[in-house]
């Protein structure tokens, strides 16, 4: 009996799913299950991004990226998400990137099963949220994971040993949590972090980890660059095996309870530039660091080393900028040679037993900013001291007793640092801003996006030198602008050091283009970029080991979240989080193959052939660049999954729409040839015409005739400002039907559009309809077959359910989509609104015994404009016949054309006017070169022409 119940339960669920399929079918870039899941998450997280109001998550939804019909990236940083990570996540089985950082109201535990089922995940960033509980062990099953950052949450319990299974992991950050217990290493039965030989970053700062640092953690096979174990409860000695990891560039072991001597093997680490061993219980002699000749920052303060004279190994550290040896038992005289190191900026030797005279000399470093010798036994200062170029602090030394030399105004008093420093604006008059606005460096008033940056590693000491911040601000501005973010400028201000000797800066990012503020989507995009920002051409002062940490200041929160990394002169990791970056990575091989196989200009000695074109012109890249003013934003008239569309004027004066492919959306060579050839062979007044193309300098560009009045969707929604009355809507339907009938019945071979929707029907200056976007089109070769077996493509709400179920594409699939467009024409509703499918709504509402079939409540109020509607019932009958579930019951497009023509005659006669011209039927436009084979290999490319 239990088995029976299980079978019946499964059958019931399958039956329910089958009922849903005709109404929630696969989208152009997302399955029905993914659409339902993302919609559920939208409600659970309480977010309403402006772009999330359609039925196509893969069609420019903010923070969503797709590859081959599936959602592969969700990047929603700083979007105000609330709630928890539900089990809906496991629906996204193709997900490669998940970034939900800076959403402090995302709470609860990570669903163990859901995380573990995202087997294709490569990047997981959940920084700065409020997740708690244990890190699920199933995270170790994500074998493709290369970047894992869970920084600044409330995760507790041990670090899962299963993370050691992530053999592709390059970046691991678990800092700023409540993790406890030992650092896991492998045994015969368990995994451990010592297995992560590819990992370049171990960041475990500010947790409650205990036990010793296991020697097994380190080996000569590791690629580790950053080891950050500071602010934990670690004890025991520093393992000598740490010296085997010769790739290390930064080490932070400070603020633990480490004891014993510092191993001499650290001298093998000749790439280390940052060494922090302060605030431990290290003992024995002051460590000899002479072999670590790349060091520029050394802090071994507050340890229990044996009392000793000042070490002489500093002379080998030719790049040293900062030396901090506070409270380590130093005695005797400070060597004069120390101050002559070329890059030296800061020396902190507080609370030691240094005595006798202090002689800094006259040949000290030009970079010297600070010499801090508080609480020592300095009694005499050499006569050659001038004190004009650096700060000397001798408070609580014998030399400061009394006022013999009026020294209170010199080195016996401490001046607080100036924290009001900020990057200056340009040379322009001070702008008069409203009280709640801020002036940008370019003197524009706006509401900037404001956060706090924290630098874990900084190579300079003088916080008051504004030049450092100018360089960094300029660098950040260039970086953000290079990614096409609407950023005018960046300012930095209020520098200060926190309790961990980390530099804090307030950053303000100002919008460009006359905007007063960023949209939520733009702020999220900036946050996402910054969360993976690598600073190129960075100033030396913030590198080579720089981390930018963002504090989400809302609600008084003090949560640090990584927003950037720069390592030496190389990129840490190609984090492909922004829209399209992952696709760009995936297309590199395709780019290479295109350069060798697509020879549109006829390079000799190649078997590859370019498209055989008649009528389409081959443009040079420079020609198109010139006629779009360098592809300027002013010429940008739209965008889609394929790329940007620009308005251009050819030298002949012809207005054109230029569709430039994004690198990550480029087709392979065969596919690009195929689309160009297809478009060059179809000629009809109700199809958007191809003027030409460009394929050079790694570009794929199509040049279309310019269609000025946008798409039908914009007109029906009122966005375009054009209101279509009943007669004009009939004419639009007729034009689009004629274009489709031409493709189905006169083109040779037959062409199936495969993505008919209101967005792909454009209106020219006379409001004539033109079918656009052939990116998904397929041709049926003359083989006696009336269908193609192919991967399902289309758009949610328009897709033929029979095609979805059988994967057999026919011309009747376009008929179904056109029937949905017809219902849009009379209702102005999107195919799916608030979970209701337009086909089902009309079917359930219509009553043929009543006027207008009882559809008054769902008809667009603008359709009649006060006149009596005639032919609406016939139009609805025709539309419903087009959306029959079985293709055999649907009319062909030629029949649809004739019926719409009849409806127009009836509507026109009733209105007492001459019907608009219907004499130019689809038969009049012959297919040029229709006997030639358009292409032999059907392609599977998702493009978008949203001009």
Secondary-structure map:
Elements: H1 2-20, H2 32-45, E1 64-67, E2 70-75, E3 82-83, E4 97-99, E5 105-108, H3 112-116, E6 123-125, E7 130-134, E8 147-149, E9 154-157, E10 171-173, E11 178-181, E12 201-203, E13 208-212, E14 226-228, E15 233-236, E16 250-252, E17 257-260, E18 274-276, E19 281-282, E20 297-299, E21 308-309, E22 322-324, E23 330-332, E24 346-348, E25 353-358, E26 370-372, E27 377-381, E28 391-393, E29 438-439, E30 445-446, E31 449-455, H4 466-482, E32 487-497, E33 503-511, H5 520-530, E34 545-552, E35 559-567, H6 581-586, H7 588-597, E36 617-618, H8 621-627, E37 636-639, E38 643-649, E39 655-661, H9 669-681, E40 690-694, E41 701-705, H10 712-717, H11 726-745, E42 750-752, E43 761-763, E44 769-771, E45 778-780, E46 788-789, H12 801-806, E47 808-809, H13 811-827, E48 832-833, E49 836-837, H14 838-845, H15 872-882, H16 893-910
Helix pairs in contact: 11-13, 11-16, 13-15, 15-16
